[in-house]
Design a protein that fits this description.
Layout: E1 4-10, E2 15-21, H1 30-35, E3 39-43, E4 51-55, H2 65-68, E5 76-79, H3 92-104, E6 108-113, H4 119-123, H5 128-144, E7 149-152, E8 164-168, E9 174-178, H6 180-184, H7 203-213, H8 218-239, E10 242-245, H9 264-273, E11 279-284, H10 285-289, H11 296-305, E12 309-313, E13 317-319, E14 325-327, H12 339-348, E15 354-356, H13 375-397
Parallel strand pairs: 4-5, 4-15, 5-6, 6-7, 7-10, 10-11, 11-12, 12-15
Antiparallel strand pairs: 1-2, 2-3, 8-9, 9-14, 13-14
Length: about 400
């Protein structure tokens, strides 16, 4: 066999390592190289930074892992343990089994969404000590199976809130929607009936919980959050986990409940409250973008340059001046957000973290968990990866 020589070529468009036969001046393709004791490998920089992920709700999810893995450019799965009561410790063996299932499908499991925060922690009740200790143990268990980021939130009572789970759009697809006027007409004293939440609490349970929150204003909720962060962030630092707070959705008070993670000022207060890179954000474009006063592109640049964005939710919303909105396709022209500008902001700050296309419409006759079908989220993932590649290639040619 002829001796070989190692030639390294570094260019703006790609980095290539070529091992070629000494007798040949022409690099071989991989197939030819194998038979000629030659080898070529090309690594594209635009594919090695952004980690595109996809949420999966476990074996009960109608969207199968085997279908998710067929989405081009997908890095990993975002999931959680769904059969353990809120506030209790997730058994390590359940997390190990979840990791094995995901990795068995050829995907990474490095992001958990979410570890739920018990209402007693938000309310600052004495029982929070036990519940915070359980949360700390969940952080340790997640780290033990290779998780790098944990998404969580501090929204009282209601997580993301919508008034319609299947609003029909002109093209015949169905999407999630929020009607600000309809929410304003609801009297919590008379009961709250919202899609997806009707079964979350029994009427008397909800009434009792809302009564407890009457004594909690924004400053009290901030104080309870600070107490919580000062307990969990040191544990996250110790085990190498990045905590990523999800903003309020929608980003405004509802039903008289305080909301404290809704705009730039709130995000800044959050990350400085415990000044650690382990205390960061899930920057959700759709949640923050539902308030037209929030400049999502600017938020990405500001908090991303600080190293505080650990997870990005990338989706578009069509917003009206009164705060009514529906979730559009991911394309910039279909919603109120410039998704190309937002993705470019992530690129410009050198973001190397995790993102997901978040929610999607129900299209092509698909049925399932509202917002979490396969087809439209897959389209969103490919669109976002396409934006990233185009922006990266253009940036390389203009250096």
């Amino acid at each position: 066999m002829d001796e070989t020589r190692l030639q390294t070529i570094v260019g703006d468009q790609f980095t290539a390592i070529i091992i070629e036969c000494a007798t040949s001046n022409t690099p071989k393709l991989r197939a030819e190289a194998a038979s000629a004791s030659c080898y070529i490998e090309i690594t594209h920089p635009w594919s090695s930074l952004l980690k595109m992920t996809f949420r999966w709700y476990g074996e009960s999810d109608p969207v199968k892992l085997e279908y998710i893995r067929q989405i081009p450019g997908l890095y990993g799965i975002v999931s959680a343990i769904y059969d353990v009561p809120v506030g209790e410790v997730w058994p390590l063996d359940k997390l190990q089994a979840l990791r094995a299932r995901i990795e068995g499908a050829g995907l990474k499991f490095e992001v958990v969404e979410s570890v739920p925060t018990h209402e007693d922690i938000k309310l600052g009740k004495p029982s929070r000590e036990r519940l915070i200790a359980n949360f700390q143990q969940n952080i340790r268990h997640c780290a033990a199976v290779g998780v790098k980021v944990i998404c969580y939130n501090f929204m009282p009572v209601f997580d993301w809130t919508r008034t319609e789970m299947a609003k029909e759009l002109p093209d015949g697809s169905f999407t999630l929607a929020f009607d600000a006027k309809a929410v304003a007409r609801i009297d919590p004293e008379q009961g709250i009936a919202l899609p997806g939440w009707d079964a979350s609490y029994q009427p008397e349970q909800l009434k009792s919980l809302l009564a407890e929150y009457k004594a909690v204003d924004e400053q009290t909720l901030w104080a309870n959050l600070e107490y919580f962060l000062k307990a969990i962030i040191p544990v996250a630092e110790e085990v190498g986990i990045k905590m990523a707070m999800h903003p309020d959705d929608p980003p405004r008070p509802i039903f008289g409940l305080p909301r404290i993670v809704k705009n730039r000022e709130d995000l800044q207060r959050l990350v400085t409250m415990v000044d650690s890179t382990a205390n960061g954000l899930t920057l959700c474009s759709g949640s923050l973008g539902a308030d037209l006063c929030n400049n999502v592109e600017a938020l990405v640049r500001e908090f991303g340059s600080q190293g505080r964005i650990h997870f990005g939710h990338l989706r578009n919303v069509k917003v009206e001046p009164d705060g009514t909105f529906y979730e559009s396709t991911h394309r910039s022209c279909d919603g109120s957000l410039d998704m190309a500008a937002i993705v470019k902001a992530y690129h410009d700050i050198g973001f190397e973290g995790y993102v997901r296309p978040d929610h999607g419409r129900m299209i092509w006759g698909e049925t399932g968990k509202p917002g979490y079908g396969l087809y439209d989220r897959a389209l969103g993932a490919v669109y976002l990866n396409g934006l990233w590649e185009a922006i990266s290639k253009y940036a390389a040619t203009t250096r």
